[in-house]
Amino acid sequence: MNRTLRQIGLLIQKDLRIEARGRQTIGLVIVLGILIIVVLGMGLGAGRPVSGFGATSILWVTYLFGGVLCFEKTMAVERFDDALAGLLIAPIDRGVIYASKLITNLLLIIGLALVVTPVAMTLFRFDLSEHPLAFFIVMSLGVTGFTAVGTLFSAAVSSTRLQGGLLAMLVFPLSLPVVIMSTQLMRKVFEEGVPLTSTDVATLCAFDMIFLIVSWLVFELVLEP
Amino acid sequence: MLKTSDQPVTITTIKHANAKVMSPSTAIRARGLGKEIDDWRILLNLNFEIPRGAYVAILGANGAGKSTLLKILATLLPASTGQLELFGMPVRNNTIRLRSNIGLIGHNSMLYRDLSARENLIFFARLYDHAAPVQRVDELLQYVGLHHRADDPVKTLSRGMLQRIAIARALVHDPDLLLADEPFTGLDAPSCKLLQELLSHQHAAGKTIMLVNHDIRQSLELAERIIVLRKGKIIIDEPSVNLEAESILEGIST
After folding, report:
1. ipTM value of the model?
2. Is 3.30.300.30 the CATH classification of the domain at B26-253?
């Protein structure tokens, strides 16, 4: 177990070091995220405060598109100069590669959220102040499920020529259960004023667990040298 | 000592630190090995044994199945039929354990271009649980003659230098089996010669080397045994001293 955790840590450290050198992924997704916020914020009426539910919906769109870009870029690092073969021939379980990519992607999306969310709150007066904890819990669990699916499929499509387009087409429909549930919970909390229950959180957690376990098990089959 | 375009290189001795528990005299044993991908038969009923410490070249035309065979030996691809044993252990049940005794060199470097040579090698040394990764990497950088470029990102290195770092990566865990898939592709003559010497030096140190190559004459010079594949079947499996380039070329072409 310790060896597995150490290997996961090594792979994450390597991915983050590569990202720190070029800032190719985080720079790109933050620019994309801010552009989405600006376009949708303007569409909803610049200067007018955007309600909590509207804000979470816009932020979801940002995380979804930014996330797909993260998944694609973090796996592209492995495909360049066949670096993936160097990993695959090492004495590590394929699940280690999945876990490290999942955590790297989550960290990048958290980085995106940490920049984009305050920008949205400042520029367009996104009002999340009524239920900040509910927002944090629901979005965190939703993004985790989405990232679990996205990491799996980024490995599957990274060896094909379609990549970006195909990845979005596969990941968006499959992560719909968590996205729909998250937005419905946010509507309930922000528009109807109904507090988040433990059942709501447990259901989202269950979706996450299913996505994580299935992706972990299937990852070896989709990872082609 | 050998002069290259960038830096004089001395092929020195290098420690073979990790004592392996695998000791049988046969490095590779394949019985009825076959591979099918989408109903395409890539490899058909291959039977061969490679003794420990042998230097074997695998030749064949494009599409003969050479690289697929190497990927199966590297445990990157499973065989569709037959049995494969490495160092007396069936690959099927011992994949992860066997990987700690295999080194792979390809025509791509398998390195991370934004990391330096040292960072790449330390990363792989730690992945292989090497007890003293920093020291091992220093030794290897000296061995391949690139200590002076150790901290430069690998994307700034020439093709020849990249291939030397790729060899260092393949040796980082001191494997007994070295698999090389067309490692000379795109190299200039001095780099090619240096790579040949590095492989020969590893062979002299007791490593088993399987080299997939297109250059028949070079393979006859380097390897002590030649396996020729045609349409997924072995058509020649002979010591290289018994063979001539023309007969191999004829076998590949017909």
Report:
1. 0.87
2. no
pLDDT in tens, B46-84: 999 999 999 999 999 988 999 999 999 999 999 999 999
Strand order of the β-sheet with B40-51 is B40-51, B26-37, B81-86, B89-90
- Residues A151-164, mean pLDDT to the nearest whole number: 80
Number of structural domains found in chain A:
1
A5 at interface of B, judged by CB pairs closer than 8 A: no
Average pLDDT, 10 consecutive residues per value, chain B (254 residues): 42 49 79 91 94 95 92 94 94 91 92 95 96 94 92 93 93 95 87 89 94 93 94 92 86 76
Please indicate whether, in this complex, the C-beta atoms of B124 and A21 are within 8 angstroms of each other.
no
Question: Is residue B131 within 8 angstroms of chain A, CB to CB?
Answer: no
pLDDT in tens, A56-93: 888 899 999 999 999 999 999 998 889 999 999 999 99
Interface of B with A in 157-196 (CB under 8 A): 169
- Nearest chain A residue (CA) to B94: A91
Domain hosting residue A147, numbered range: 2-222
Test B96 with A92 for CB contact under 8 angstroms. yes
Q: How far is A155 from chain B (nearest CA, A)?
A: 16
Asked if A10 and B77 come within 8 Å (Cβ–Cβ), the reply is no
Q: Which residues does chain A have within 8 Å of residue B71's beta carbon, measured at their own beta carbons?
A: 225
**Residue for token digits 């990519």?**
A101
